[in-house]
Amino acid sequence: MQTVSDLDLVNMIKAGNHLAFSELYQRYKIVLYLHIKKMLNNEDETKDIIQETFTYIWVNRLDLNISTSVKSYLYTTVRNKVLNVITHQKFENNYLNSLQNIIEIGEFSTDEKIRENELIALIERGIENLPAKMREVFELSRKYHLSHKEISEKLNISDKTVKKQISNAIKILRLEVRNFILLFSFI
């Protein structure tokens, strides 16, 4: 199989050929590993991204549409997954820092916990009240950490539509959160 082109391998994978899938994995696992490791410097995350990428390819093989080279497709996919991991890590770090500040200052009170729960419930209701397609795009992005490209492929919509839907969802949710904060700033 070493003489078979990457695109031929993809076509064979679409037909359910496990050997072709294995060959594609063998061709790219090391270079992708090194590429991801250089960006994240975390072995577990790196292995997870490689596994997620190839699992996605196999699970979605029938819908796989690679318009560029396979190598470019793989690099773009892992780059998007790395960016999702970095974004998630920043969010986690900010949350943990905020929590640490609250603990250090000693301001964590029952009243604040109630407000926090109300804010979480408000956001969840806001997400539930989004138009169905917008909610689906938003949840795929924020809850399942799919890239815009992965969402567009999964839902058969353009990247531009994905970006617009996420942007609109954030605007709607931000307005609800802002109103909530304004309400409690007067209390």
TrEMBL record:
Whether Transcription counts among this entry's keywords is yes
Quick one: a GO biological-process term for this protein? DNA-templated transcription initiation
Q: Which residues form the RNA polymerase sigma factor 70 region 4 type domain?
A: 122-171
Q: What are the alphabetically sorted keywords of the record?
A: Sigma factor, Transcription, Transcription regulation
Xref: CDD domains:
Sigma70_r4
Molecular function (GO) terms listed? DNA binding; sigma factor activity
Give start and end of each RNA polymerase sigma-70 region domain.
Answer: 24-90
Q: Which family does it belong to?
A: Belongs to the sigma-70 factor family. ECF subfamily.
Protein name per Swiss-Prot or TrEMBL? RNA polymerase sigma-70 factor
Question: What is the source species?
Answer: Pedobacter agri
